[in-house]
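Researcher: We're teaching a course module on how sequence relates to structure. For the next exercise, students receive a sequence and then see the predicted structure as tokens, so they can try to spot secondary structure elements on their own. Here is the exercise chain.
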Amino acid sequence: MGEGANIYSGSKDLDGLAAALTNPTELSYKKNNIKKHYPVEFRGQEYRDAEAAFWKHAEDKELSFEEQQELCTEVVTAKLEQYPELVEAINQQGGVEWLEKCRHFTGARTEKFKKWEGKGKDSAFIRCLINAYKRVK
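Model: And here is the predicted structure for the students to work with:
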């Protein structure tokens, strides 16, 4: 099983896998950490990446943090369904057990973004990724 990676747009871990698993993949691409784009179709519309889909459906809404996490899980589920190679790469690393070793630290400066950070299940984003992976697998 692979060691846990820091899943964020600035990651160079695992030949770009960690940067591809984050939501703002356009940022990962601009940073040269992935070689392709990951547009996501979500609720009948196409978005440039999972981050854009999330914020389009979260903006201007009074969503609780639990509701935000469910929305994130739904968006990441759609992404994984559309990019089965990401699911296969997670499988090859060790599946849920590997994801639980991963972390999500982005250098966030505001509470709005810091609340997603952490290691393993202490990270709201990693929990969403694990739940999405389980739904697709």
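Model: If you want an answer key for the exercise: Helices lie at 17-21, 25-30, 50-58, 65-82, 84-93, 95-99, 111-114, 124-136. The first helix runs from residue 17 to 21.
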